[in-house]
Amino acid sequence: MILTHQQKRPNIHPTAYIAPTAAICGDVIIGAHCRIMHGAALIAESGQIVIGDYGIVFENAVLRSNAAHSLTIGKYCLIGPQAHLVGCTVEDEVFIATGAAVFHGAVLEKASEVRIHAVVHLKTRLSAGATVPIGWIAVGDPAQLFPPDQHDAIWEIQQPLNFPLTVYGLDRSEATMEKITRKLAESLSSHADDEVILPEA
Protein backbone atom coordinates (compact mmCIF):
# COMPACT_ATOMS: atom_id res chain seq x y z
CA MET A 1 0.00 0.00 0.00
CA ILE A 2 1.39 3.39 -1.02
CA LEU A 3 0.18 6.41 0.95
CA THR A 4 0.69 10.15 1.03
CA HIS A 5 1.46 11.78 4.38
CA GLN A 6 1.28 15.54 4.97
CA GLN A 7 0.92 15.99 1.20
CA LYS A 8 4.16 14.11 0.51
CA ARG A 9 4.15 10.97 -1.56
CA PRO A 10 6.69 8.19 -2.01
CA ASN A 11 9.09 8.32 -4.96
CA ILE A 12 9.74 4.77 -6.09
CA HIS A 13 12.18 3.89 -8.89
CA PRO A 14 10.43 1.97 -11.67
CA THR A 15 12.82 -0.99 -11.31
CA ALA A 16 12.01 -1.41 -7.60
CA TYR A 17 9.56 -4.06 -6.39
CA ILE A 18 7.12 -3.27 -3.60
CA ALA A 19 5.18 -6.28 -2.29
CA PRO A 20 1.40 -5.75 -2.21
CA THR A 21 1.29 -6.07 1.58
CA ALA A 22 4.12 -3.61 2.26
CA ALA A 23 3.24 -0.08 3.44
CA ILE A 24 5.15 2.90 2.08
CA CYS A 25 3.98 6.18 3.61
CA GLY A 26 5.07 9.79 3.05
CA ASP A 27 8.41 11.22 1.95
CA VAL A 28 10.09 7.92 1.06
CA ILE A 29 12.61 7.59 -1.78
CA ILE A 30 13.29 4.04 -2.98
CA GLY A 31 16.19 3.52 -5.36
CA ALA A 32 16.77 1.31 -8.37
CA HIS A 33 16.36 -2.46 -8.04
CA CYS A 34 15.22 -2.29 -4.42
CA ARG A 35 13.00 -5.03 -3.04
CA ILE A 36 10.54 -4.18 -0.27
CA MET A 37 8.96 -7.46 0.83
CA HIS A 38 5.64 -8.46 2.39
CA GLY A 39 4.59 -6.74 5.59
CA ALA A 40 7.48 -4.27 5.60
CA ALA A 41 6.49 -0.76 6.75
CA LEU A 42 8.39 2.38 5.72
CA ILE A 43 6.75 5.31 7.52
CA ALA A 44 8.13 8.83 7.02
CA GLU A 45 6.66 11.26 9.54
CA SER A 46 7.99 14.71 8.55
CA GLY A 47 11.52 13.36 8.20
CA GLN A 48 12.57 11.58 5.02
CA ILE A 49 13.42 7.92 4.37
CA VAL A 50 15.90 7.15 1.57
CA ILE A 51 16.76 3.61 0.44
CA GLY A 52 19.75 3.37 -1.90
CA ASP A 53 19.98 1.18 -5.01
CA TYR A 54 19.70 -2.59 -4.51
CA GLY A 55 18.36 -2.18 -0.98
CA ILE A 56 16.58 -5.26 0.32
CA VAL A 57 14.00 -4.86 3.09
CA PHE A 58 12.65 -8.23 4.16
CA GLU A 59 9.30 -9.23 5.64
CA ASN A 60 7.84 -7.27 8.56
CA ALA A 61 10.79 -4.92 8.96
CA VAL A 62 9.82 -1.46 10.26
CA LEU A 63 11.65 1.68 9.10
CA ARG A 64 10.58 5.06 10.53
CA SER A 65 11.64 8.69 10.41
CA ASN A 66 10.45 11.84 12.16
CA ALA A 67 11.06 15.57 11.94
CA ALA A 68 14.22 15.40 14.04
CA HIS A 69 15.60 12.14 12.63
CA SER A 70 15.50 11.22 8.97
CA LEU A 71 16.50 7.69 7.93
CA THR A 72 19.05 7.00 5.21
CA ILE A 73 20.11 3.59 3.96
CA GLY A 74 22.95 3.38 1.44
CA LYS A 75 23.39 1.11 -1.56
CA TYR A 76 23.59 -2.69 -1.38
CA CYS A 77 22.16 -2.97 2.13
CA LEU A 78 20.05 -5.80 3.52
CA ILE A 79 17.51 -5.27 6.30
CA GLY A 80 16.38 -8.58 7.73
CA PRO A 81 12.89 -9.74 8.69
CA GLN A 82 11.38 -8.02 11.74
CA ALA A 83 14.28 -5.56 12.05
CA HIS A 84 13.46 -2.10 13.39
CA LEU A 85 15.28 1.05 12.25
CA VAL A 86 14.36 4.59 13.21
CA GLY A 87 16.03 7.90 12.38
CA CYS A 88 19.50 6.50 11.70
CA THR A 89 22.15 6.57 8.97
CA VAL A 90 23.20 3.30 7.36
CA GLU A 91 26.10 3.54 4.91
CA ASP A 92 26.69 1.26 1.89
CA GLU A 93 26.93 -2.54 2.10
CA VAL A 94 25.60 -2.90 5.64
CA PHE A 95 23.90 -6.10 6.85
CA ILE A 96 21.19 -5.84 9.52
CA ALA A 97 19.91 -9.25 10.55
CA THR A 98 16.56 -10.61 11.69
CA GLY A 99 15.08 -8.83 14.69
CA ALA A 100 17.88 -6.29 15.05
CA ALA A 101 17.14 -2.72 16.20
CA VAL A 102 18.91 0.52 15.29
CA PHE A 103 17.87 3.71 17.08
CA HIS A 104 17.76 7.50 16.57
CA GLY A 105 20.96 9.24 15.54
CA ALA A 106 22.95 6.02 15.14
CA VAL A 107 25.47 5.77 12.29
CA LEU A 108 26.44 2.40 10.82
CA GLU A 109 29.53 2.87 8.70
CA LYS A 110 30.25 0.98 5.49
CA ALA A 111 30.15 -2.84 5.53
CA SER A 112 29.29 -3.11 9.21
CA GLU A 113 27.02 -5.90 10.49
CA VAL A 114 24.31 -6.03 13.13
CA ARG A 115 23.51 -9.66 13.76
CA ILE A 116 20.31 -11.41 14.93
CA HIS A 117 18.49 -9.54 17.73
CA ALA A 118 21.42 -7.19 18.29
CA VAL A 119 20.86 -3.51 19.16
CA VAL A 120 22.62 -0.34 18.04
CA HIS A 121 21.53 2.25 20.56
CA LEU A 122 20.76 5.94 20.41
CA LYS A 123 23.53 8.18 18.95
CA THR A 124 25.90 5.23 18.55
CA ARG A 125 28.55 5.10 15.81
CA LEU A 126 29.52 1.65 14.53
CA SER A 127 32.83 1.81 12.66
CA ALA A 128 33.32 0.50 9.12
CA GLY A 129 33.45 -3.28 8.98
CA ALA A 130 32.51 -3.72 12.66
CA THR A 131 30.14 -6.45 13.84
CA VAL A 132 27.62 -6.44 16.68
CA PRO A 133 27.35 -10.11 17.72
CA ILE A 134 24.07 -11.99 18.05
CA GLY A 135 22.01 -10.46 20.84
CA TRP A 136 24.69 -7.93 21.87
CA ILE A 137 24.27 -4.16 22.36
CA ALA A 138 26.39 -1.41 20.79
CA VAL A 139 26.31 1.91 22.62
CA GLY A 140 28.36 5.11 22.44
CA ASP A 141 30.46 7.03 19.92
CA PRO A 142 32.64 5.20 19.14
CA ALA A 143 30.55 2.13 19.86
CA GLN A 144 31.36 -0.13 22.76
CA LEU A 145 29.97 -3.67 22.59
CA PHE A 146 28.29 -5.42 25.51
CA PRO A 147 26.53 -8.74 26.03
CA PRO A 148 22.93 -8.32 27.17
CA ASP A 149 23.70 -9.24 30.79
CA GLN A 150 25.86 -6.12 31.25
CA HIS A 151 22.98 -3.73 31.93
CA ASP A 152 24.82 -1.52 34.44
CA ALA A 153 27.73 -0.92 32.08
CA ILE A 154 25.34 -0.18 29.20
CA TRP A 155 23.25 2.17 31.35
CA GLU A 156 26.34 4.13 32.42
CA ILE A 157 26.88 5.13 28.77
CA GLN A 158 23.23 5.28 27.79
CA GLN A 159 21.77 7.34 30.64
CA PRO A 160 23.42 10.69 29.69
CA LEU A 161 22.09 10.29 26.13
CA ASN A 162 18.60 11.01 27.55
CA PHE A 163 16.52 8.70 25.37
CA PRO A 164 13.16 10.33 26.31
CA LEU A 165 14.41 13.79 25.33
CA THR A 166 15.88 12.63 22.02
CA VAL A 167 12.95 10.44 21.02
CA TYR A 168 9.90 12.09 22.60
CA GLY A 169 11.08 15.65 23.29
CA LEU A 170 10.60 15.19 27.04
CA ASP A 171 13.45 15.28 29.52
CA ARG A 172 13.82 12.08 31.55
CA SER A 173 12.80 13.95 34.71
CA GLU A 174 9.36 14.75 33.25
CA ALA A 175 8.80 11.86 30.85
CA THR A 176 5.89 10.01 32.41
CA MET A 177 4.07 7.45 30.28
CA GLU A 178 0.99 9.70 30.35
CA LYS A 179 2.94 12.59 28.84
CA ILE A 180 4.68 10.35 26.30
CA THR A 181 1.51 8.67 25.06
CA ARG A 182 -0.46 11.94 24.92
CA LYS A 183 2.31 13.51 22.83
CA LEU A 184 2.52 10.48 20.54
CA ALA A 185 -1.26 10.33 20.12
CA GLU A 186 -1.27 13.95 19.01
CA SER A 187 1.62 13.43 16.61
CA LEU A 188 0.25 10.20 15.13
CA SER A 189 -3.17 11.78 14.56
CA SER A 190 -1.60 13.38 11.47
CA HIS A 191 -2.08 9.99 9.74
CA ALA A 192 -5.85 10.55 9.71
CA ASP A 193 -5.39 12.55 6.49
CA ASP A 194 -3.13 10.03 4.70
CA GLU A 195 -4.42 9.00 1.27
CA VAL A 196 -3.89 5.74 -0.58
CA ILE A 197 -2.22 6.22 -3.96
CA LEU A 198 -3.85 3.90 -6.45
CA PRO A 199 -1.66 2.25 -9.07
CA GLU A 200 -1.84 3.82 -12.50
CA ALA A 201 -3.93 1.89 -14.99
From TrEMBL:
GO molecular function, one term: transferase activity
Organism: Candidatus Moduliflexus flocculans
Alphabetical keyword list: Transferase
PANTHER family for the chain: DYNACTIN SUBUNIT P25, GAMMA CARBONIC ANHYDRASE-LIKE 1, MITOCHONDRIAL-RELATED
Top-level taxon of the source organism: Bacteria
Entry-linked InterPro entries: Transf_Hexapept/Carb_Anhydrase (IPR050484), Trimer_LpxA-like_sf (IPR011004)
UniProt key word Transferase: yes
Tagged with keyword Transferase: yes
Protein name: Bacterial transferase hexapeptide repeat protein
